[in-house]
Amino acid sequence: MASILIQSVNLSEKKGTAKMAVERIELTHSGVAGDAHAGHWNRQVSLLGTESIVKFEASANRKIAPGDFAENLTTTGLNLWETHPLDRFTSGDIELEVTQIGKECHGRGCAIFSEVGDCVMPKEGIFCRVLSPGILEPGMELEFHPKTYRVIIITLSDRASAGEYEDLSGPRIEEIMSTFFESTKLRHHIVRHLIPDDPHLLEDLLHKAKEELIDVVITTGGTGIGPRDFTPEVVRSLVDKEIPGIMEAIRARYGSTKPAALLSRSVAGVMGKSLVFALPGSVRAVTEYLSEINLSLMHMIYMLHGLDIH
């Protein structure tokens, strides 16, 4: 397990100023006690690695002291800018969750920028919120826990589950989602299920996904108007919020040239901390649908976790 070493802990009473190194800081649910950036928001604790500071010192020909970039924690051991929102750092009972990589530069409002015309914090600093409070001191280590995004794929088909033909849409979804997460350098774990057209089996799998806080649930099949097409009804009965715009836009886009696409009753929604997408059963359809869904998938996930990242 990777970890970072805390080299300095720093405080400031005013925003836009350098922070001063102190012996220890107290993390509370609103951030660092006594720090100007504390509050009920997502940028409660700022971190900057010496890996970034050393590069900046070389380019600016200036020595940088801990806290000069207004970071609460000066660390070493990890390229912090390579982390992602929802990754976590822990030390004993203390737990921090990454909420943002970099930030908008304050320009002349930043002490370092005013002096040398550049700043590294907006590019390579990171911000966290406090999930579990405690005391941090120089010399302590924080273990790094990258988030693994969990995806469940459920194919509904009487014939495929009976072995009469091969399930093609489920594997295609897995291929698309694996490529998506690999392209964004995010860890992921995907599980596929193949079940007959049974609403009770589907409901059981969805309940389990909600309980296990699965990030993304994708079903394929059962979205038409046939007598065995019930997937939208089961999904709607379990979601807390429906996301109608996604499916409406997809139907409108492909229905303009393929009228049969308008017969799909695919739905999207929020089920606890899980996103649920009920897609049609064909390989072509899941490819088309996911090409649109994945454009905003991470934004949806971040919103579910209270992060407003654009």
What do these coordinates show?
This protein has 310 residues and is an alpha+beta fold. The chain contains ten helices and 17 strands. The chain has helices at residues 50-60, 111-116, 121-124, 158-161, 169-183, 199-211, 231-238, 244-255, 283-293, 297-304, and strands spanning 3-11, 20-22, 25-28, 31-32, 45-49, 73-76, 88-91, 94-101, 126-132, 134-136, 141-145, 148-156, 187-195, 216-220, 241-242, 267-271, 274-279. The strands form three sheets. Strands 1-6-5-9-8-7-11 form a seven-stranded mixed beta barrel. Strands 13-12-14-17-16-15 form a six-stranded mixed β-sheet, sandwiched between helices. A three-stranded antiparallel β-sheet has the order 4-3-10, with no helix packed on it. Helix 8 (244-255) crosses helix 9. The model has no long low-confidence stretch (mean pLDDT 92).
Shape: elongated
H/E element sequence: EEEEEHEEEHHEEEEHHEHEHEHEEHH
Identify low-pLDDT runs. none
Q: What is the number of beta strands?
A: 17
The major β-sheet equals: 7 strands, mixed, barrel
Put simply, the count of helices is: 10
Radius of gyration: 24 Å
- Averaged pLDDT, please? 92
Quick structural gist:
This protein has helices at residues 50-60, 111-116, 121-124, 158-161, 169-183, 199-211, 231-238, 244-255, 283-293, 297-304, and strands spanning 3-11, 20-22, 25-28, 31-32, 45-49, 73-76, 88-91, 94-101, 126-132, 134-136, 141-145, 148-156, 187-195, 216-220, 241-242, 267-271, 274-279.
